[in-house]
Amino acid sequence: MTGPIRIVVADDHPIVRAGIVGLLESAGDLEVVGEASDGEEAVALAESTRPDLVLMDLRMPRLDGAEATARIRASAGDAPRVLVLTTYDTDEHIVAAIEAGASGYLLKAAPQDEILAGIRAVVAGETVLAPSVAAQLVRRVRAEAAAGAGSSAPPPPALSPRELEVLRLVAAGASNPEIARTLFLGEATVKTHLAHAFEKLGVSDRTRAVTRAMELGLL
């Protein structure tokens, strides 16, 4: 990408929003092109400014962040990615945001460098989850798998040991460069393993791959 990453910030608390904007503007490679105080404004700004990313709070007036995310991701053309930045880490909020199409879910209490790294990773096409959020998803999926353990189901797809290693690191919140360093692989090789795993699991992105692998008891 040439030029700064263009971002719309959506948060209904002016002081919090100003702090986020200040953090982003100080990064050097990020540019705030719009500020929204509710979900309706976020959708409108995403349409009018066509940013690379919308940094989305969840509980906002008029239209909540999950519904705003769904509308933004459903828009025609090259829809901007959405990274949720919120204080809420309950199953209800996490699942709603991911199902709406968010590419990441971070908490406002995260270190500033983690938030900035998450923004860059999501714009690069990766999925970013706060560690506590990933843990919540693991617990939820395992509980659902246990509840349905008595039902008959086809055998899970055969993922290779390396594909499983890569998915375990994705579930832990690692980015492609981090996975490559951990497993002593090239980033292109990591992407290839992920593509094969996606195909075998019948999914199209990292979050759904991890969720599906957990449902099948592979992770």
How would the blueprint of this fold be written?
Blueprint: E1 5-10, H1 14-25, E2 30-36, H2 39-49, E3 53-56, H3 65-73, E4 81-86, H4 91-100, E5 104-107, H5 112-123, E6 128-129, H6 131-147, H7 161-171, H8 176-183, H9 187-201, H10 206-215
Parallel strand pairs: 1-2, 1-3, 3-4, 4-5, 5-6
Helix pairs in contact: 2-3, 3-4, 7-9, 7-10, 8-9, 9-10
Report on this model:
The protein has a six-stranded parallel sheet, sandwiched between helices. 41% of the residues are buried. It folds into two domains: 5-129, Response regulator (Rossmann fold, 3-Layer(aba) Sandwich), CATH 3.40.50.2300; 150-215, Arc Repressor Mutant, subunit A. The protein has helices spanning 14-25, 39-49, 65-73, 91-100, 112-123, 131-147, 161-171, 176-183, 187-201, 206-215, and strands at 5-10, 30-36, 53-56, 81-86, 104-107, 128-129. Helices cover 53% and strands 13% of the residues. By secondary structure, the chain is α/β, with parallel strands linked by helices. The protein contains ten helices and six strands; from the N terminus they run E-H-E-H-E-H-E-H-E-H-E-H-H-H-H-H. Helix 3 (65-73) links the parallel strand 3 (53-56) and strand 4.
